[in-house]
């Protein structure tokens, strides 16, 4: 960056992401993405926002809404417990700033809302482990096509 005289000016604290959003769902792929994001957040002194998107019950499936909501809430609680345990095991408690958020809906919509609301500078997701995504497109591809944040896909 240059000032009005054409001289270089150093910008303190403006490089690197301030908020990193990572999608977690308990899968191996999402844990690898979370580990990568945690390392990046620690090194960059960024806030790590871990986001779990709770699937909404199908409208036409009467009676399944409450049990499904309870199950997804339990999954969210288990993810938070595993995150805390992993961070404590690594000794990162004092150096890693992190938050856990849940959003309801479909993964693309939930992560997009999270990234927008949290003003994410980067979004990190695990590579899809489902074979059908090669045909209809994965979450990562949809996030990249949205072109609103840099997206990193962790294999």
Could you give the topology of this structure?
Blueprint: E1 19-23, H1 28-44, E2 47-54, H2 65-90, E3 97-104, H3 107-117, E4 122-126, H4 133-136, H5 139-146, E5 151-154
Parallel strand pairs: 1-2, 1-4, 2-3, 4-5
Short description:
The chain is an alpha/beta fold.
Report strand order across the widest sheet. Answer: 3-2-1-4-5
Number of helices: 5
Q: How much of the residues is beta strand, in percent?
A: 15-25%
How many individual β-strands?
Answer: 5
Percent of residues in helices: 40-55%
pLDDT averaged over residues: 78
The CATH superfamily label reads HUPs
- CATH architecture designation: 3-Layer(aba) Sandwich
**Whole-number tally of structural domains:** 1
User: What is the ordering of alpha helices and beta strands?
Assistant: EHEHEHEHHE
Given this structure, which CATH class is correct? Answer: Alpha Beta
Low-confidence stretches: none
In one word, what is the shape? globular
Largest sheet: 5 strands, parallel
Provide the structure class.
Answer: alpha/beta
CATH topology description: Rossmann fold
Radius of gyration: 18 Å
Distance between the termini: 35 Å
